[in-house]
Amino acid sequence: MSDTSESTDDAGAASDGADDAAAVDTEEVRHVADLARVRLADDEVDEFAAQFGDILEYFEALDEVPEVEREEELVNVMRPDEVEEGLSQEEALANAEETEDGFFVGPKVS
Amino acid sequence: MAADINAFVTEERIEGDADADGPLADATVAVKDNISTAGIRTTCGSEMLADYVPPYSATVVDRLTDAGATVVGKTNMDEFGMGTTTETSAFGPTKNPVDTDRVPGGSSGGSAAAVAAGEADVALGSDTGGSVRCPAAFCGVVGIKPTYGLVSRYGLIAYANSLEQIGPIAGTVEEAAAVLDVIAGDDPHDGTTRDLREVEGADPDAGYAAAADGDVDGMTIGVPTELFEGADERVVEAVEAAIADLEAQGAETTEISLPSVEHAVQAYYVIAMAEASSNLARFDGVRYGHRSESDGNWNESFAETREEGFGAEVKRRILLGTYALSAGYHDKYYEKAQDARAWVRQDFEDAFEDVDAIASPTMPVLPFELGESLDDPLRMYLADANTTPANLANLPAISVPAGEADGLPVGLQLVGPKFGEETIVRAASAVEER
Q: Which InterPro entries does the UniProt entry name for this protein (chain B) (predicted)?
């Protein structure tokens, strides 16, 4: 998807909820689902709110983790920028639900 | 038989090279359904990809067929690898061939069940937080999670890139190691694979199957108390008996402490969910996968496509990952999880200054009954306590049958230092010989 810029934005109750994050209300679940572009049924929202409370409470134990120096031996892996064989247009479009004149057809923008 | 335990999502063949010789010539291999196979649908156990047919094969599939192995089918799995029981699959649960009222473990449950039931000689799974080792333990077979970077992930449909590796499942340690011999090695299509000639301390000529010689005389095995605490007593008993037997064969054992692993499950789930929320954003119904018949705009259409295509556990992880990365929570969850990951890595590095391998139960529990853990996701997550540390620390690990408890298989896990696959294969083959 092209519009992912919002997905790391404010999750709603961050300003008043960061300290007691274990409790999650249905509005927060709806907001996060909206950010993640996942529609939820009403009963799913209720179920997730209860389960997220338990799971996030369990994650709270991460507060006990000391700050650790992260010394990773990471190196960039480069290769010459040469044109290589890739998928044909036909292969690239083969799994799309809707195509037109060799292009993907997406949903309307607004 | 196949229909009985539901090990396969799709039963189609890719013939191996008939001219090949070597240990895998004429072997049959079952491939987890998140590993791409050209021309054969690859579903990830999801409605989202029920009709997806990859235009290319994963590197590991090409390497196996070049070595003479014939792919016999694509195995059932927890949806996108998200589960510990193979019950979150959109294609129904797989049953454990040892006891069909129980789960085979997950997420590579179909692969382990296929091997245990004799429906394939060997299998490929993928292991993000234990998904090869857990089903191997529950089904009474052998599973290897290689060091991060040993095996190419090209063609593996991503769940959590920084944690996962493709790994073999087989009836014996030697057979699993023979598959590893074939699939290991750097790949220009996966920039995270390593050329062992350039890795300090690694053996570029390592032969994994040849290391299954059972010779543990003089080997030092660390036994971490944290990975035995809280485990089912019947599991602990079987694993301790197997470790005692390694001592009888000349290995030295020493109790060690890995305090960081108490936080491994939390760190694993925060990191895996965060990576999943980003990886699975690609499933919008435009280029591949299910697409809803929505009249809505771009965003509404995506949200409906994803509502229809994803099951509950996948939605749960995408939402929790989105939450953990969002402003106000990023430092609290994601940053702390990365601290925990570095701590786990440090803990293991320190331990390997004194020991050659680290032994524990693979799973702290016996195989669940079907349906037992589905409504309680946190309970399912906690079962990954002993397997997730190796993923967080990028280390190799193997699960080998240690015996039975109440007629159910118990797995012993051995974790080795980075690229120390030969050591854990050697120790595991000694467990097997007892």
A: Amidase (IPR000120), Amidase_CS (IPR020556), Amidase_dom (IPR023631), AS_sf (IPR036928), GatA (IPR004412)
| pLDDT > 70 in chain B, percent | 99
CA distance A9 to B360: 41
CATH class of B2-261+341-433: alpha beta
Examine the pLDDT at B395 and tell me if it is beyond 90.
Answer: yes
Cβ-contact A63, A20 below 8 angstroms: no
Catalytic, out of B36, B57, B89, B107: B107
Residues B176 and B122 sit within 8 Å (Cβ to Cβ): yes
CA A79 to chain centre: 29
User: Which pLDDT band holds residue B313 (cuts at 50, 70, 90)?
Assistant: very high
Domain definitions of chain B by residue range: 2-261+341-433
Q: What is the pLDDT of residue B433?
A: 78
pLDDT over 60 at A10, yes or no: no
Q: In the β-sheet with B408-415, what is the strand arrangement from edge to edge?
A: B8-10, B70-75, B28-32, B122-127, B165-170, B142-145, B397-405, B408-415, B357-361, B220-224, B252-256
Cis amide linkage into residue B152, ω under 30° from 0: no
Q: Which of residues 170-189 of B touch A (CB under 8 A)?
A: 188
Residue of A nearest to B337 (CA): A62
Q: Given the residues B89, B131, B301, B360, select the one marked as catalytic.
A: B131
Could you give the maximum distance between any two Cα atoms of chain A, in Å? 57
Q: Following DSSP, what letter does each residue of B311-355 receive, concatenated?
A: -HHHHHHHHHHHHHHSBTTHIIIIIHHHHHHHHHHHHHHHHTTT-
Give B 274-333 residues with CB within 8 A of chain A. 277-278, 281-282, 284-289, 291, 294, 296-304, 306-307, 310, 312, 315-316, 318-320, 322-330, 332-333
Interface test with A, best of B293, B298, B343 (most A CBs within 10 A): B298
What string of DSSP letters covers B106-174?
SSSHHHHHHHHTTS-SEEEEEESSSTTHHHHHHHT-EEEEPPTTSB--TTBPPS-TTT-EEEEEESSHH
pLDDT given for residue A5 in this prediction: 40
- Does residue B34 surpass a pLDDT of 70? yes
Within 13 Å and on the Cβ side, how many CA atoms surround B181?
A: 20
The complex's ipTM?
0.91
Residue B353's contacts (CB-CB under 8 Å, 6 or more residues apart) are: none
Chain B residue numbers touching A18 (CB-CB < 8 A): 328-329, 332
Q: What is the pLDDT of residues B37-80, one digit of tens each?
A: 999 999 999 999 999 999 999 999 999 999 999 999 999 999 99
Identity of the residue in A66, A91, A107 whose CB atom sits nearest the CB atom of B55: A91
Distance CA B312, CA B402 (A): 34
Do A37 and B299 make contact, defined as CB atoms within 8 angstroms?
yes
Whether residue B74 lies in the annotated active site = no
Rounded to the nearest angstrom, the gap between the alpha carbon of residue B244 and the centroid of all alpha carbons in its chain is: 27
Tens of pLDDT, residue by residue over B254-302, are 999 999 999 999 999 999 999 999 999 999 999 999 999 999 999 999 9
Measured between CA atoms, the residue of chain B closest to residue A21 is: B329
